[in-house]
Specification:
With about 110 residues, this protein is mostly beta strands. Helix content is about 15%, strand content about 45%. The protein has 2 domains: about 30 residues; about 80 residues, Macroglobulin (MG2) domain (Immunoglobulin-like, Sandwich).
Length: about 110
């Protein structure tokens, strides 16, 4: 029964706006999933975004002092992969669609 409910909630998320979560669970149905590898990076890092929302996504990368060092918008591609090269330090990548925002920490040695 629980599996059926989870599948039904996933279906609702796919066909209706907003995000549903299961009762008693902190897990949300993610429309975009971002990951960065390798971490920490020596000179180049790949930021990969799985775009289940089929919406345009925006990727902005900021240094820790708030300076925007990268910005690019992508169409509704299901998988976006970006190669990034920055100086040593820690950066924050903001990956956003119309309905969701994710932040990923990027570390360069």
């Amino acid at each position: 029964m629980k599996d059926w409910m989870l599948r039904r909630l996933a279906w609702i998320d796919g066909y209706l706006g907003g995000v549903c979560s299961t009762t008693g669970s902190d897990q949300l149905a993610a429309r975009i999933q971002a990951r960065a590898f390798p971490q920490p990076a020596d000179d180049q890092l790949t930021l990969e975004v799985q775009n289940n929302s089929r919406e345009e996504i925006q990727i902005d990368v900021f240094s820790l002092n708030g300076q925007k060092v990268f910005s690019q918008q992508f169409s509704d591609d299901p998988l976006v992969s970006v190669q990034l090269k920055f100086r040593s330090g820690v950066y924050l990548a903001k990956v956003s669609s119309q309905k969701e925002v994710q932040t990923v920490k990027l570390v360069f040695r």
